[in-house]
Amino acid sequence: MRFEKGHKAATRRHIIDVASKRMRRNGISAAGIAGIMDEAGLTKGAFSPHFESKDALVREALASALDDQQHRLDEDQRRGLDLEGAIRRYLNRAHLDDPTGGCPSAALLPEIARQPPSTRKDYEKGLRSYVATLAALLPDADAAASRRRATAIFGLMVGTLQFARAVPNAAQAEQILEGGVEAALHLARVPSP
After folding, report:
1. What residues contact 60, with CB distance under 8 A and at least 6 apart?
2. What's the pLDDT at 1?
3. Which of 51, 74, 134, 149 satisfies CB 3.0 to 4.6 Å to 56 for a cystine?
4. Residues of 58-96 as b/e, b for ≥16 C-beta within 10 angstroms?
């Protein structure tokens, strides 16, 4: 059977998209190849023509999720979103309720730390890009100081989202989110000399 030109690339992209969502929903360890391929509507045997290993798929799925997150922040920035808007867009009810389509850091950070160095290096590259975009929204003139503060702000945002997802009480989760917004905005202020 012959496939149309681009079929293999489109199938690969589909597998990556399904894997990225499944990993954010269930975790990297719980997202097995058979389940990913089944959810993609493919047989397990269709995996090996596209990826050499699960580790390779994890790297690509994580990179894809980070790229999507970066793209959304870049688009928001082009539309004039300021740092407070970026923080509130991240720490909100919709993001809280959508780990599958949300931030891979908030969904997977403990598991990312256990991945092979190549995966962690790819994650670090995506993290640096996102933090650089946040840093550009800070009022600091010192680029190094902006990156440090943007890293701290993002860490606070990720932790806040994880914390809010862990509590079963919706009102408590909302309070956690709002407290995270307040703390992140406090960190974003230019320190007085």
Report:
1. 16, 19, 51
2. 56
3. 51
4. bbbbbbbbbebbbeebeebbeeebebeebbbebbeeebb
Which residues are CB-neighbours of 116 under 8 A, at least 6 positions away?
55
**Predicted pLDDT at 80:** 93
* Cα Rg, the chain, nearest whole Å: 18
Query: Tokens 């993002």 correspond to what residue?
Result: 154
Rounded distance, CA 68 to CA 151, Å?
A: 19
The answer to whether the CB of 56 falls within 8 A of the CB of 34 is: no
Please give the DSSP secondary-structure letter assigned to residue 28. T
Q: What are the residue ranges of helices labelled H in the chain?
A: 7-26, 33-39, 54-78, 83-90, 93-96, 104-112, 117-136, 143-166, 170-188
Tokens read off for 106: 């908030």
Q: Name the residue among 83, 72, 74 with its Cα closest to residue 139.
A: 83
Angle at the Cα of 25 (from 32 to 123), degrees rounded to 5? 80
Whether the pLDDT of residue 149 is over 60: the answer is: yes
- Mean pLDDT, the chain, whole residue set: 92
If you search the block for the tokens 């509590």, which residue do you land on? 167
